[in-house]
Amino acid sequence: MKIIKPVIHKIRRPFKYVRVYLKQKAGWLGIPKIQPYRGFGSLKEVLIRGMVIEDKGLVKPEDRHKVWQNMLSTIKRFSSDEIPGVKVEASFMGISKVTETDEDGFFSFQFDVEELASELVEKSWHPVQFKLLDEIVDDQPEIVATGTVRIISPEEERIIVSDIDDTVLISHSTQTFRKLMLMLTKNALTRLPFKGVANFYQSLQRGKSKVEDYPFFYVSSSEWNLYDLLDDFFEHYGITRGVFMLRKLETSVLKFWKSGQGNHEHKYDKIKYLLEYFSNQKFILIGDSGQKDPLIYKRLATEFQGRIESIYIRKVRSKVFFKDTEQLYTQLEEVNTDYLEVEDTAAAISHALKSGYINKETLQD
Questions:
Q1: In which band, very low, low, confident or very high, does the pLDDT at 73 lie, cut at 50, 70 and 90?
Q2: Burial of 124 by CB count in 10 Å (0-12 exposed, 13-18 middle, 19+ buried)?
Q3: Which of 1, 12, 100, 105 is the most buried (most CB within 10 A)?
Q4: pLDDT at residue 10 is higher than 60
């Protein structure tokens, strides 16, 4: 069995190592599990990420679950220990690599796949297999997992990037008490999306021709701890599958109610990375006015002139970011970006139809 040693002088937050080390020595550490996150890549390389964490035994959500069961699931999500310093193997299309988890339990892989380009273009999503190579607890079973990777070819003309909280998922992010109640009392099947979002996103995915498969990225201030909830929520409501780009938990576990807060600068960094990585594609950005989406999206549109086709902002309460709206529209018009603040999904759909992003028949279907 591999002993996780707290090498204090090499890490930023030694308490994490010490806590896992002591739990392991005392025999209290639960069986580990691999949590893969959806990866993405081009016809040249593939990027894959995931975590090794303590398995807290989260059960699949049901709409008949009681409040206390949902509360327990929330607590488990934010109390599972990440397991640092263990080896993970990833296998993608016959290529295998090994890496070690960092101090937060994350691992990442980069595969060079240029020689596999002809196979990669056959479909959008490809499987990747993971295996934990270290034995961390006594009588540990084989720990394996399967993830998926979204391949985006240069021929795909458009990428859609969407926020999640108060854009797709009703979250009340600007109202702490209401947000906390949703987190504690609801699950993936009883949380609600905004009306029409699933239909709108499916139509954007298929495009005007109805046969496209435009890729989606979901860039959010929510933490990776909520990945399973978001994944189940999107599947349950038929919202277009995409690559989640969330962030690490930076607050105390006891302050999980602060989930999704912060300065949101990571959204800018992640979308900027996508714009630079996929330099051939145009982008549509979708967000809400409850946080900093309007400011972040405007900044990106002016820095990447001509790359952002449209920005859709769902109005949340009466929050206003731009005093001079007329000047904003003029600035974005100069960089060929449409900017819309909408009360509901129907207004965004109307604009998307006029702009040729979606097909009316697909929308009706």
A1: confident
A2: middle
A3: 105
A4: no
Q: Are strands 158-162 and 308-314 parallel, antiparallel or unpaired?
A: unpaired
pLDDT band at 130 (very low <50, low <70, confident <90, very high): very high
79 CB-side CA count, 13 A = 12
Distance set, CA 126 to CA 39, 98, 147 (Å): 10, 19, 8
- Determine phi and psi for 245, rounding to 5 degrees: -125, 90
Nearest to 90 by CA among 79, 99, 81, 80: 99
Whether the pLDDT of residue 328 is over 90: the answer is no
Q: How many C-alpha atoms does 166 have within 13 Å on its Cβ side?
A: 25
Could you tell me the pTM of the whole model?
A: 0.90
Nearest by Cα to 217 from 159, 277, 261: 159
d(CA 323, CA 335): 20
Amino acid identity of residue 193, one-letter, is P
**Average pLDDT for 201-228:** 93
Place of tokens 């929308």: 363
Strand positions, DSSP E, 57-122: 87-92, 95-100, 106-112
